[in-house]
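Memo to structure team: turn this sequence into structure tokens by end of day. - J.P.
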Amino acid sequence: MSTPRVLVSVLNWNKAATTLACLEFLRNQAQDNMHVDILVIDNGSDPDEYAKLRDAVDARWVKLLRVEKNLGFTGGHNLAVKMAMEQDYDFIWLLNNDATVEADTLAKLTRAIRSDDRCGAVSPVLSPGEGAPQNTGWGFVIDWRARCQKWLPSAEASMKLHETHPEKIAIAGTAVLLRVAAMREVGLLDDKLFAYYDDNDISARMNQHGWLNKVVFDARAVHDKRVLSETPLYFFYLMYRNELFFWHTHMPAEYRKLLWLKIVNQSLYHINRLRRQGLERQADTALLGVWDFMRGRGGAPDLSRRPPLAIRLAARLISLQHDRQISAAQSAAR
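Reply from structure team:
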């Protein structure tokens, strides 16, 4: 692989200005000893937003692909992953259009993944932006017993785990570079998820097939985060539904006893915490996500519905027990 071929995939959904800003960062990416192609997939944007993008994109160095409906993060990027497989690219970079990357980020990621044939995916260090805690930049570990993900608290902790247990590293999907050969083995992104938890899913599948995920500590990207009250409702639906799909799909056999009941109860506990924060609409939307998991309904969110009265009443009843647990935990912490 003397000159690696890299396909960069960027999704646009009704944010032409954001995507165009992302392309400016890509224009300045160092491409030493690489062949890089840029693919922008318009994911069913409104016609006026798509027109803004189409009219501004320079076709000499960016390929623009329009799809008529929103396929989500997974469905949209899967079009690019399939293209990378069919056209024998070596790597594919899935880059959020609202991420800011330094000029040498792709070059550093590519050098890192090429340096280890066992490595299937790499991520730069991620920063959530100014004014936010710098606590999600170094990857995370999936704790199967506790059914949670634990972000590594520092660069030092992450480096140590990379040395001692590299098979335990999972990485965020904001600016992930994937080895196409690994994707041929583990499969496409899971379309059932639509968006969110796809990074947990692909990290777990990489590990299950013997591939490693790594953080590249000298590469940087910034991805701003919203506070909960400003987060779109579909986020709560997808996060709660897809977390359940993730645990139900990937949980190791030794932790599967009563798994369905445990994970649903865990979700209802966190929904109750949303209500205690006054986030009633967010809690209702998250409960709809739980209901759709129970029905096995994946894909795009449909927020025009409410979960049945029975599950709403059950969630309220269970919340009484959760209230006691929360109060006991608060008292113990005093």
